Amino acid sequence: GAVNRFCDRAMLLEQGRLKAIGEPDRVGSHYMEMNFGRDSVNRARPGEPERYGDGGATIEDCWFEDAAGRRTQHLEQGERAVLAMRVAFHQDFPDPVPSVLLENEQHHPLMAISTYDARVSTGWNRAGDQALVRVSFECLFGPGRITATPWVMYPTGTALADRRPRMTSVMVTSTRNSGALVDLPAQVTYEPVVQPVETPAA
Fold first, then answer.
1. How remote is the C-alpha of 72 from its chain's centroid?
2. Cβ atoms 25, 165 nearer than 8 A
3. For 143-175, how does the pLDDT look when each residue is reduced to its tens digit (9 = 90+)?
4. Which of 86, 89, 118, 162 has fewest C-beta within 10 Å?
5. Residue 192, CA distances (Å) to 44, 149, 198 in order
């Protein structure tokens, strides 16, 4: 997140060897892949945006829902919202860890959560099974476009099945714009302070 925020270009070195250089987001994807024990390979099908992982499970769809449960491309600040993803398993897959990262237009991370973080059991999934993962949250983000990057990890946390950078997005709207990344609910009070009147010395 810091690299995306502050850098125009990035370079990835491994044991003194150049592995990648270019746009921070692309180099960051290489870094993520190397952390999972493999060189970065874009496994996207023709006409599909980039995706990473060994394909043991794949994210087939990802979308936002409004408070009424309808798919939407717009959210009103302050309303209840859902990020949903549909995962397909192509092999027997015990205890998958679906996760999601939400970012703003400047690629600043706003929220990251997984079934592991939420202590949700995902159990044993057979080849051919599918699962629906839903993340419910109160939309407190500042106005602007929010992107979602979903991924699925193996239970050890050292291998990646599928990661789809910025697979979907939603526009957050509001009647006010504080300029903050997140507008947390807050209460403001104002109390005038009455100064004591000084009595002149005799």
1. 17
2. yes
3. 999 999 999 999 987 688 999 999 999 999 998
4. 118
5. 62, 48, 18
Question: Which DSSP helix (H) or strand (E) runs through 5?
Answer: helix 2-6
| pLDDT value of position 39 | 43
Phi/psi-derived region of residue 108, left when phi > 0, alpha when psi is between -120 and 50, beta in every other case: beta
Helices (H), 11-168: 24-35
Residues of the chain where predicted confidence (pLDDT) is lower than 50? 37, 39
Does an H or E element contain 3, and which?
Answer: helix 2-6
Specify whether the CB–CB gap between 77 and 183 falls below 8 A: yes
Measure the N-to-C terminal CA separation of the chain; round to a whole number of Å.
Answer: 67
Q: What is the DSSP letter of 192?
A: P
For residue 175, is it left (φ>0), alpha (ψ between -120 and 50) or beta?
alpha
